[in-house]
Design brief:
By secondary structure, this protein is of the alpha+beta class. The chain has helices at residues 12-24, 50-53, 56-85, 88-109, 120-124, 139-149, and strands at 2-9, 32-35, 128-135, 154-161. Residues 164-169 have low confidence and may be disordered.
Length: 169
């Protein structure tokens, strides 16, 4: 799994310098994405994919969460009916489904998540969000580069992103 690091910059020049510093440290430009409100000049910065601008990661996450929750309660309903009808195969199957949905939900709830809706106020002030996708073992390195070479950039959090989706979601 990759980690997506979020940094806010007050202007394009500072964000562009951060990108250049990261490229000098062998971080691929394909691993970086910039975002701001429409009308803010992002020329010279790595572009975000349409799915990133629409915050598809959050929409997918919410859909999967709702599906997981719905599956759990359907299994609970079937469990109650199975007890009433004494169908012990369905009782066990329902319990297995409920344990699986609980485990999956718990696993993903413990993952750090950042939603772009949290940056609405910053975007209204024309700030630029730089997202950097890196393997977990490079997180400290990226944070150090930004803190040491770009003091105007503020770290806004870390989220997880699947490695196969990290460049597009």
């Amino acid at each position: 799994m990759y980690r997506r690091l979020f940094f806010l910059f007050p202007n394009r020049a500072d964000a562009k310098k951060a990108v250049q510093d990261l490229v000098q440290e062998n971080i691929s430009i394909k691993q970086m994405h910039s975002l701001s409100k429409p009308g803010v000049d992002l020329s010279g910065l790595p572009v975000s994919a349409p799915n990133q601008r629409r915050d598809m990661h959050t929409k997918i996450e919410n859909s999967l969460w709702n599906f997981n929750l719905g599956t759990f309660f359907i299994a609970l309903f079937i469990l109650v009916l199975s007890f009433i009808s004494s169908n012990y195969f369905l009782v066990i199957a329902s319990l297995v489904v409920m344990i699986a949905t609980y485990s999956i939900g718990y696993y993903y709830l413990t993952k750090p998540t950042i939603h772009l809706s949290g940056f609405h106020a910053a975007f209204q002030h024309n700030e630029i969000l730089l997202m950097v996708d890196v393997p977990k073992n490079q997180v400290a390195k990226i944070e150090r580069i930004i803190h040491n070479k770009n003091p105007s950039g503020s770290e806004e959090g870390i989220s997880w992103t699947p490695a196969d989706l990290s460049m597009n979601v």
